[in-house]
RNA sequence: CCGCGCGUAGCUCAGUCGGAUAGAGCAGUGGACUUCUAAUCCACAGGUCGCAGGUUCGAAUCCUGCCGCGCGGACCA
């Protein structure tokens, strides 16, 4: 949001933590020699306000490395350190902690900089990459259920974060659209006459279609034979069969896209590249592996035994490439997809957002790809070397009784039903809390709150752990929940409305003197916002969205404290009022930006 | 049997690369609404960080062993 009138000479503003890291690194090199220049200065926000605003923990570890007393190391470091323009004289405390306190005008300078920056001080990544993110991946001819929600939500958030940092993402929806089950599905379509138009069967009937086909397959040998023939026809590309198969996919995708739209997930049909897309190259993959000398014939099946994997009794664990009957399995498809992503899509990083139970599977697939030399193939395009492969595992959703989340009758929960219930519950809360809203507004608020609550509950705890699904907790207005964050945002908008201020007028290159910091709650709020860049970079590195949630909650808590302690509209004077309005604006934009990165919407009123 | 993951307050969860007195929310107790949305805030109380060793100035964090739970482990995905 830099304006033409802004002085060109204004140096690029770093957040204080980055600034300190750079200056400490320089001081380390100067005081202890270039051989220690790469040592991380270990700058962190102060653990306790009484220690100041930031702390450097490097003196202890450096002291060990150079065999000296850490406090003496800290003293030498401070002698070489040049931060007097921005910080008060640092203290050495305890075993060698260095405590730093920002000067007030530096803090004001930071706040002014945030106010004038659309990206809130977070620059794009230095080395943007092409990243393939594989997520969602529902099965054709089945309704989406809770088993798909985590991959879909987590993957979407990861994509948004990566794109915010300037990476190019290739979203991949690896649909389960191929396999022997399609023989019976298609044969059943023919039997029931659902062959000419999509609307002769409905999404809601897909599960029924699957169950009926399965039942026919199990109970009727003649049907089973026809189904097997149909698989052969499908695989050999019989046009009539393919047409029916296509119909099934289209009808299924219509259902998926409805769910994606409700979830505000950005997957589109262009992102679909299902299992069937790799069907033609499976034998090439096999040939690749054979020529790399990786394959072993074992009990009639073609296997790869990747290094470092043992099964029962410590015997090598196979990755089965081709079954003894000649058929291919998902390992082969995953290898084909991996090869395609490296070779044809030129990915520099590939992230697979799948259930934690597939961890070993992907580890084996990755190891096989490395042994086959595919990763080096990618290194030719990536000057930084190689392709980074990330499995992004997540745990199971549990009910409040600690067992996997099911309906009362023990069935898997359909995603559409889950969203319906969330909206109903949210609507009831909205009606109770804010009866002033008209019916239309209530419905809109309920929708945004409901979807936000479900997503945030999923994203806010460490994804690798199982999490306990609880309506009451996710829809609570207290604690680390989406409604609490959305409420903080709405309160800010309410201030602007009441003050009759257009927040965009607050972003026009304010000067540091426009943002004096007079209250500890104001200072805490600015310091929290200054942590944004570090948090987002950490998420892009670890692919752990819950770090952003933890941050958001801390931010909203800081704002709530500010809200209680620092009147905005009724500030002491115009200057303070304007300063606080600016703080409100950067807080609101930070909340909205972060929630947006999680795929969660905000509301001006709720 | 082998491998992977998890184990933090009554419950649900954070805890950065090993750093200062392990933090939140819920539930509990006690406070705060003529004041920008009380859908909120403040305070109090609550801990053998699964157990036992080890590494060191310092361990919830790293190493070893054990216990408990979950999940994988040959032609499903």
What secondary-structure arrangement, pairings included, does this model have?
Layout: H1 16-32, E1 43-45, E2 54-56, H2 58-66, H3 70-80, E3 91-93, E4 97-100, H4 104-115, E5 130-134, H5 146-164, E6 168-172, H6 181-192, H7 206-219, H8 221-235, H9 239-263, H10 282-291, E7 295-298, E8 301-304, E9 319-322, H11 330-343, E10 349-355, H12 359-371, H13 374-379, E11 388-394, E12 397-398, H14 415-433, H15 439-459, E13 467-468, H16 471-474, H17 482-499, H18 520-529, H19 532-542, H20 546-565, H21 574-597
Parallel strand pairs: 5-6, 5-10, 10-11, 12-13
Antiparallel strand pairs: 1-2, 2-4, 3-4, 7-8, 8-9
Helix pairs in contact: 1-3, 2-3, 4-21, 6-7, 6-8, 7-8, 11-12, 14-15, 17-20, 17-21, 18-20, 18-21, 19-20, 20-21
The structure holds one RNA strand of 77 nucleotides.
Principal-axes shape call: globular
The largest sheet is: 4 strands, antiparallel
Number of strands: 13
Our count of helices gives: 21
**Fraction in beta strands:** 5-15%
Distance between the termini: 28 Å
Radius of gyration: 28 Å
The average pLDDT is 92
Helix content: 40-55%
What structural class is derived from the secondary structure elements? alpha/beta
Low-confidence stretches: 1-11
* Strand arrangement across the biggest beta sheet: 1-2-4-3
């Amino acid at each position: 949001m830099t304006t033409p009138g802004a002085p060109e000479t204004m140096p690029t503003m770093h957040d204080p933590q980055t600034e300190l890291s750079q200056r400490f690194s320089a001081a380390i090199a100067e005081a202890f020699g270039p051989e220690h220049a790469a040592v991380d200065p270990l700058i962190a926000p102060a653990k306790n306000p009484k220690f100041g605003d930031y702390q450097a923990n490097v003196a202890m570890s450096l002291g060990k490395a150079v065999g000296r007393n850490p406090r003496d190391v800290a003293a030498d470091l401070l002698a070489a350190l040049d931060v007097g323009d921005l910080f008060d004289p640092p203290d050495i405390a305890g075993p060698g902690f260095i405590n730093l306190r920002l000067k007030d005008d530096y803090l004001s300078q930071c706040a002014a900089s945030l106010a004038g920056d659309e990206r809130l001080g977070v620059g794009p990544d230095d080395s943007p990459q092409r990243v393939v993110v594989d997520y969602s991946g529902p099965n054709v001819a089945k309704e989406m259920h809770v088993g798909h929600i985590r991959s879909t939500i987590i993957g979407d958030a990861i994509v948004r974060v990566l794109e915010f940092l300037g990476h190019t993402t290739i979203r991949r929806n690896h649909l389960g659209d191929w396999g022997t089950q399609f023989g019976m599905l298609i044969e059943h379509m023919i039997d029931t006459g659902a062959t000419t138009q999509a609307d002769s069967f409905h999404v809601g009937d897909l599960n029924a279609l699957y169950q009926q086909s399965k039942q026919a397959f199990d109970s009727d040998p003649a049907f089973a034979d026809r189904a097997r023939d149909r698989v052969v026809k499908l695989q050999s590309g019989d046009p009539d069969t393919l047409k029916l198969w296509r119909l099934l996919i289209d009808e299924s995708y219509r259902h998926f896209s409805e769910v994606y739209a409700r979830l505000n997930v950005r997957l589109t049909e262009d992102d679909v590249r299902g299992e069937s897309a790799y069907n033609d190259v499976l034998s090439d993959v096999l040939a690749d592996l054979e020529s790399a000398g990786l394959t072993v014939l074992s009990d009639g099946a073609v296997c790869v035994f990747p290094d470092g994997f043992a099964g029962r009794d410590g015997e090598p664990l196979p990755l089965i490439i081709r079954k003894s009957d000649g058929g291919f399995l998902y390992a082969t498809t995953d290898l084909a997809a991996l090869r395609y992503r490296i070779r044809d899509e030129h990915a520099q990083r590939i992230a697979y957002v799948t259930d934690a139970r597939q961890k070993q599977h992907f580890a084996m697939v990755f190891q096989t790809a490395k042994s086959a030399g595919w990763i080096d193939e990618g290194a030719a395009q990536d000057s930084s070397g190689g392709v980074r492969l990330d499995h992004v595992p997540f745990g199971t959703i549990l009910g409040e009784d600690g067992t996997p989340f099911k309906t009362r009758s023990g069935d898997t929960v359909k995603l559409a039903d889950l969203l319906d219930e969330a909206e109903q519950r949210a609507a009831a809360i909205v009606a109770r809390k804010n009866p002033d809203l008209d019916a239309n507004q209530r419905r809109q608020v309920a929708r945004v709150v409901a979807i936000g609550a479900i997503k945030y509950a999923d994203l806010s705890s460490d994804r690798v752990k199982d999490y306990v699904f609880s309506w009451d907790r996710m829809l609570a207005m207290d604690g680390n929940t989406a409604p609490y964050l959305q409420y903080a945002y709405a309160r800010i908008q309410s201030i602007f409305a009441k003050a009759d201020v257009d927040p965009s007028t607050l972003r026009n290159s304010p000067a540091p003197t426009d943002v004096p910091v007079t209250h500890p709650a104001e200072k805490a709020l600015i310091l929290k916002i200054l942590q944004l860049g570090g948090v987002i970079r950490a998420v892009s590195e670890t692919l752990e969205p819950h770090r952003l949630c933890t941050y958001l909650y801390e931010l909203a808590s800081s704002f709530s404290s500010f809200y209680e302690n620092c009147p905005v509209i009724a500030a002491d004077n115009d200057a303070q009022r304007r300063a606080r309005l600016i703080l409100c604006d950067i807080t609101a934009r930070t909340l909205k930006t972060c929630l947006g990165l999680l795929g969660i919407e905000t509301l001006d009123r709720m």
